[in-house]
Design a protein that fits this description.
By secondary structure, the protein is mostly helical. It has helices at residues 2-6, 15-29, 32-41, 47-69, 79-93, 97-116, 119-126, 129-151, 170-187, 193-208, 232-237, 241-266, 277-294, 305-310, 317-329, 333-337, 341-355, 367-383, 386-403, 412-430, and strands at 75-77, 154-157, 161-164, 299-301.
Length: 431
């Protein structure tokens, strides 16, 4: 039944590989179960309620992606958007968190409408190839940078912004061992190499004292603190249209960038277009609505899905595992919290290396393609934003084609996106 429904054989994979890849993806993004409640708690939201909302919205959105779109892409509350929700909207503007949840719900409804009218699908398929390749490589650098930061290999520096971490730190040493271990396993064709590496480094950290067995295994979820606490009426009264636009805009292009990059890596694009794009985009719209109803910020596709793709995922079958583990995490959150970030960091570094192969597809001898691809590639990790990296690339693409007399290569959709990106920077500049 699984073979037929997910077309496993048709996609040249098998059930075991898909399930292991799903487990790999979950382990690389399991941190969101703990981190998201911690961030939103700064907005005054109950931790237990946010944890429940995080797991439920992630599980349901991931199921929609797997069952409806048949892609191995997991979804969860976005890290950049939860920070914007807490520190810019609630704390920065003094807006109560139920009202902010109302804003998220409205943006989710906008996502849903634009998805059903296939406008978002046209955006995904209308992005020029050079930007698709640049986005894939840029996200590769982005998640590799996140991995290096999580491992402590790269640290902040006032003079140079970033610097090499303390090499004698046990976490740095274990992460370096993890990079070599996973690289060796993957090179030897071990299908579960990434997963084995994560588990091995976690266990090795216990005698060193940087990993710990959880004090308890089971904890009961408490959803009442955030469930159905959204306040749309107050959001409408406050005239928060610009906030709805920002939530919508950032998630739209974060999600588009992630979809394009992960699908490029998995070989899902056909002549530069993503089959079943509207089905895939429906998942984050559905997840965002469910998240707002239960009590969390905007849900989006996760770049860590690339770890599952690197482990061999080619269908949505592994999403069943991811969704089930998110549900289990509601009851086993102490166990999820026991997976340290330095243990998953090597997987992110190596997946980033794999994704950087997309730069070979860029036409570097044509500056009107090369420069936008490069700005997307470099802008994504340096600004810590997929949406920003893509916006820099697309704006430069439009203006370079315009200034070199290649206006015919600028589609009506690109003109519209250019105006939207300019509006985005106008809104950001007004804050």
């Amino acid at each position: 039944m699984l073979q037929r429904f997910f077309r496993v054989s048709e996609n040249r994979t098998n059930v075991r590989r898909e399930l292991l890849a799903g487990l790999t993806t979950f382990m690389t993004m399991a941190y969101i179960v703990i981190v998201n409640p911690r961030i939103l708690s700064d907005a005054g939201m109950p931790v237990e309620g946010v944890l429940f909302a995080t797991c439920v919205s992630s599980a349901l959105a991931t199921l929609v992606m797997g069952l409806w779109a048949n892609y191995p892409i997991a979804l969860a509350p976005g890290m950049s958007l939860n920070a914007y929700f807490t520190y810019s909207v609630v704390i920065g503007r003094g807006i109560p968190w139920p009202t902010a949840l109302g804003v998220v719900l409205l943006s989710g409804i906008v996502f849903l409408i634009l998805t059903l009218t296939r406008i978002r699908e046209q955006i995904v398929n209308g992005i020029p190839d050079c930007l698709k390749h640049g986005t894939a490589a840029g996200i590769g650098l982005f998640i590799a940078f996140i991995g290096l930061r999580n491992a402590g290999m790269v640290v902040a520096n006032k003079a140079t912004f970033v610097a090499l971490g303390r090499i004698s730190d046990p976490q740095v040493i274990l992460a370096a061992i993890g990079v070599l271990l996973i690289a060796a396993l993957v090179s030897r064709g071990v299908e579960s190499g990434i997963l084995i590496g994560i588990v091995a480094i976690t266990i090795l950290g216990i005698p060193v004292g940087v990993s710990h067995w959880p004090k308890q295994l089971v904890s009961w979820p408490h959803p009442s603190g955030t469930l159905f606490k959204f306040d749309v009426r107050s959001a409408l009264k406050l005239g928060l249209g610009e906030l709805v636009f920002i939530f919508f805009f950032v998630d739209l292009f974060d999600n588009v960038g992630t979809l394009v990059a992960v699908c490029e890596e998995g070989g899902f694009l056909r002549d530069g277009r993503l089959p079943r794009a509207s089905r895939a985009l429906l998942a984050d719209a559905f997840g965002t609505i469910v998240g707002a109803l239960t009590g969390t910020s905007t849900v989006t596709s996760y770049v860590e899905s690339a770890a599952g793709v690197a482990a061999g995922a080619r269908t949505g079958l592994g999403n069943l595992v991811i969704a089930a583990l998110f549900v289990a995490a509601m009851f086993f959150s102490p166990l999820v919290a026991a997976i340290p970030s330095y243990a998953t960091a090597p997987a992110l570094v190596l997946v980033g290396a794999l994704m950087c192969g997309a730069v070979a597809k860029v036409k570097w001898n044509d500056f009107t393609d090369a420069v936008p691809a490069f700005l997307t590639l470099i802008g994504t990790p340096l600004t810590f934003s997929i949406a920003t990296g893509l916006s820099l690339g697309l704006l430069s693409f439009t203006f370079l084609k315009l200034f070199t007399g290649r206006v015919k290569q600028i589609s009506p959709l690109i003109w519209v996106l250019t105006v939207l990106f300019l509006l985005r920077y106008a809104f950001l500049g007004a804050e």
